Amino acid sequence: VDRPRPLVAGNWKMNGLMRSSAKVLGEVHAGYTPGLRARVDLVVCPPATLVSAFAHMSVGTRVGIGGQDCHAKESGAFTGDVSAEMLADAGAAYVLVGHSERRQYHKEKDADVCAKAVAAHRAGLTAIVCVGETREEREAGKTLAVVRKQLRGSIPVDSNSHNLVVAYEPVWAIGTGLTPTAADVAEVHAAIREELKRLVGKADHAKVRILYGGSVKPSNAAELMAVENVNGALVGGASLVAADFLAIAGAY
Ligand code: PEP
Questions:
Q1: 58: annotated binding-site residue?
Q2: Is the CB–ligand 1 distance for residue 234 below 6 Å?
């Protein structure tokens, strides 16, 4: 019915120097063939130092570029931070907000994540809002409650299917090689879709992309991407290798 167009995003984290990374991006461009382009959107989120160069290199390729975080304010005395407007100015169209590494290492709370998503929208960027439970929370049976609470706290009221993407990333699955079962992913994504009905509105909620992230690789992509309400992937480690990233996108 209203199946959203899939989106596969690569989160390079704090990896990538100009010379070697330009080569990887070039391979991604070359592998994003018309056949693949017809089926799936591709986004690369390099470190902030590479956003401008990557955006320039990607003009005309339909590969979107995203930041990995942004400050909530437009400008000011915030040494070391990067605003959403600066990312947009550098050519980004997306920004990750609320990644678990930001929540963990920078103590970001849902309200902080929401403010960053508001900033992304203000700057004309699509916010990729990340949520997900820890291992302890899953073992305690709190997964759905945790994810619902994060969504309610992190998603701005002006969100729609153009300016919002949700990424479900179980913290225990990130960088560990562990993944939830297809049934577990289906359960969480269904709960996210239901929550979006209230947060985004009835008209548009079905078109919001909900990505799965956490140890996605070519060997498990087809199974995970086939799950109901999984509209793409957020890929960490495997996105640093163009052939793997493209193979994951090719699961669609
Ligand atoms: C991530 O950090 O967004 C992620 C999904 O990492 P990985 O694919 O390496 O588990």
A1: no
A2: yes
Closest CA to 46 of 32, 30, 65: 65
Whether 200 contacts 161, CB under 8 Å: yes
169 is catalytic: yes
Examine the pLDDT at 1 and tell me if it is beyond 60. Answer: no
pLDDT of residue 3: 83
Q: Is 175 in the pocket of ligand 1 (CB under 6 A)?
A: yes
| Domain ranges across the chain | 7-249
Contacts of 190-197 with C-beta under 8 Å, sequence gap 24+, read: 190/228, 190/229, 191/144, 191/147, 191/148, 192/131, 192/147, 192/151, 192/166, 192/168, 192/229, 193/229, 195/147, 195/148, 195/151, 195/152, 196/151, 196/155, 196/166
Does residue 250 line the site of ligand 1, with CB under 6 A? no
Instruction: State the CATH architecture for 7-249.
Output: Alpha-Beta Barrel (3.20)
Question: Which ipTM did the prediction report?
Answer: 0.97
User: Catalytic residue among 71, 99, 121, 189, which?
Assistant: 99
Q: What amino acid is encoded at 202 in this protein? A: K
Instruction: Pinpoint the alpha helices (H) of the chain.
Output: 18-31, 34-37, 48-58, 84-89, 100-105, 110-122, 135-139, 143-154, 182-199, 218-225, 242-249
Given a contact cutoff of 8 angstroms between Cβ atoms, the answer to whether 248 and 213 are in contact is: no
Dump pLDDT digits (tens) for 115-142: 999 999 999 999 999 999 999 999 999 9
